[in-house]
Amino acid sequence: xxxxxxxRRSRSQRRPAPPARRGRGTSAGAGKAAGEAPYRARQQRLAxxxxxxxxxxxxxxxxxxxxxxxxxxxxxxxxxxxAPGNTPTRPVLLSDFRYQExxxxxxxxxxxxxxxxxxxxxxxxxxxVRGAKVDRLGIQAEHMTVALRRSIxxxxxxxxxxxxxxLPALRTIKDQTEIALxxxxxxxxxxxxxxxxxxxxxxxxxxxxAGRLEAEMKARGSSxxxxxxxxxxxxxxxxPHYRPGTTKVASGKPLLIDWGAIYSGYHSDMTRTLAIGRWxxxxxxxxxxxxxxxxxxxxxxxxxxxxxxxxxxxRDHIRAAGYGDYFGHGLGHGFGLEGxxxxxxxxxxxxxxxxxxxxxxxxxxIYLPGVGGVRIEDDYVITDRGAxxxxxxxxxxxxxxx
Length: 402
Description:
By secondary structure, this protein is an alpha+beta fold. 36% of the residues lie in helices and 18% in strands.
């Protein structure tokens, strides 16, 4: 297998390898990532977890997990990783010609050997697994389709070992490299909103504002919005996942903005609710309640507290104010390489204990059909003693009045 891989790499090796860049990320991120230490440590932690799961190897098929372990964000690639004591000692990254040059820094940094497939991914998996003499192949049961699993079993003639949640358990704790990238994503989205806010006028459509906000994020280094930007005018604010349309901003109507950036693969996520001209009295009332709930829950974030406890702090405050029926979603969620990751601050799932290094949103809301809604959201990293807010945009009522 090694010699065949080398043959398939020969054309790219005749060219000088791209340098491992530091600083601003590329759209795929491999050049920046390859020379940095966290990837090797992440692979080692996962290898130990694979052994504990009873597998000799793990086939990583989720693109975000491949990115977490190698820094490569291009997608359409799998990674075969060995548990300690098994071969190969270095992971094998299965990809195709489109990414061959882009992956060279990953190979040069010793983070993975490359297998550039000439045919289908299934055939590549079978060839690499057989060449590695895999004893017990672990799969990501939460990501692999039933059809792909059956095809692998039929081709290899062996059963696979199901694993579930190995990577999410590792990814929930962010290292310093990840925290720095998320901080940068937060700065980008904040600066973008600050650039757009002075330009918002009655008569502009939700889509127009969304487009300008996303363009400002891209101009500052965001590869894409973290999700479909929510710009909700007036009564549309009562729809938590509203999709912007042609409704126009109008004086006296609230404006809810939920937006996020992606920087070098890492997300950020914030929400602000504004009044254009003057506040609707009812929206002004619920704004104060939501802000109080948001600040109370954020102040309680700390290692050892449970996700359900933090959710209850905000939920109980909103319920005591008489609006419990109008806050129906969870208080927040983790994020990183994906817009939503563990842990989830919610009353809908079994509680988990917060740990240092986790990053979560805190985003209570009150949604009044026919009137509008208020949601206020910031991003927090759990520290050894409490939590630190990664966001700096104001959220007081005076600032929110435009």
